[in-house]
């Protein structure tokens, strides 16, 4: 994964009305690219290589802009696919498949998961969704109540959880309580840090 690959991907998405096939590891590879560029910039800064740091930061900016545009296009196509009803979610990578099923359930006015997912997965997601807007809590080893929240490092729009409940918008620097499913995705994307509150 590199900037050239992202450019090619964007050009292909722009040139076709349907979703372009991507590798299952596409989003993971992008996260690795962003991490590598961050590390390169930090390393250059520590060595006093200002020009090299600036190059890494510019590459980082370009990569993020390209990815935002790719995601925007793919989201539009996903919504179109939901309404056309002529698309199989099996053709999508995992992250997009979950989103497709949420959108499909919403359009068909079904309770999320029922009718579009195996029962075992429905039960697991219902258990997780029961956390809702509440702080994820559990008993610590000392019997203390432990709460999990997230510090967000970027402005984020409203996000829908599995039960189509809205969370946000969120401003960079906010300490927020989110369902673990959303929080963990934000942590993986590098835009949030998990905080445990005793």
From TrEMBL:
Top-level lineage group: Archaea
Lineage of origin: Archaea, Methanobacteriati, Methanobacteriota, Thermococci, Thermococcales
Organism: Thermococcus waiotapuensis
Domain called Gins51 C-terminal: residue spans: 149-195
InterPro entries in alphabetical order: Gins51_C (IPR054314)
Protein name (Swiss-Prot/TrEMBL): Gins51 C-terminal domain-containing protein
TM stretches of this protein: none
